[in-house]
Amino acid sequence: AADMTSAVHFWGAMVGATELAGAAHLLDGALFTMSNIVMMAMCVLLSAFRTQSWDFAQKVTPARVVVLVGLFAVSVSAMFAQAFNPFLYFQF
Question: Fewer C-beta neighbours within 10 Å, C or N terminus of the chain?
Answer without folding.
Answer: C
